[in-house]
Amino acid sequence: RYMQDNTGGMACYSSSLSTTARGDSIEVTGVLKDYNNLLEMDPVTSHTVLSSGNALPTPTLITPNQMTNANEGMLVRIDDITFTTNPGGTFSSNSSYNFTSGGQTSSIFVRSNHPLIGKIVPSSPVDIIGIVSEYSYQPTVPGFQLLLRDTNDIILTTSIFINSKVSLTNLSQTGFDI
Question: Is the CB of residue 30 less than 8 Å from the CB of residue 14?
Answer without folding.
Answer: yes
